[in-house]
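Batch manifest, entry 17 of 40.
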Amino acid sequence: HVQNVLGDSAVFKEAPHNGYYYIGLKQNHPILGDLKVRQALMYALDRETIINTVFQGYGTVINSHSVPFSWAYSDDVTDYQQHAEKAVSLLEEAGWDQLNSEGIRLNSQGEKLSFVMVSASGNEDKANVIALVTEQWKAVGVEVVVEYYERSVLFSKYLDVGKFEAYMWGWNLSLDPDCYMQFHTESGLDENGVLQGFNDVEYSNQQVDQLLVAGRLTYDQQERQDIYAQIQKILNQELPYVFLYTTNRVKGMSNKVKNVVWSPLEPIQINKWHIDPAHR
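Output type: structure tokens
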């Protein structure tokens, strides 16, 4: 959405960023590999409050791999509104039905529902988001140990080699909805442990693989829209990521500039702009 705010000397518009933030979950992890646990992690979060607290409301909750203004966006997905009771029920169904003295869940073997999340140091917004996320997860009995690393270390020792349990990061998206590099099985780790694309969580779904290939084989936009809607629905159900939000950004344009054309993201078609001689 784009919101107009008129001032005396400028026009300001709020527009979404073409990208989103997420927490990647290792799909073969002994805890995070359980779909019920991943669903519980989603239901435990109040993402609207996180947006309002950290970004003063300048953000939009997302529930799959797309952003609301994309031509390929589908809203035929589950909106994981916070539901702590449902999160607790799912964790209990997954076998995490006991609590220790610190309120952290245990299974029948006495193992803790605990995992490590890595992220980049030096970003206050990300740190504040992570603090709220871990607090909300702890409220349903999930312990998260957060480790921060300088960006080059984070990638070279963890993300680029697929050696992590969970991590927080974000995607900058292109205008094309293709996400083969993020979610196709062959974009994960090969037999030698070398990452072939960006599927560092090692997500693998045969139907998604087939749809991703099909989306690359047609130029028909309606057909592609249908394909990527199916992909979004499956990703929303299987949750290789905890999908968080896209941030919205405010951009301004002087009122002296006339005939400005705004896209959903920013002013475009600069060749049409002009400034009246009286205002130069």
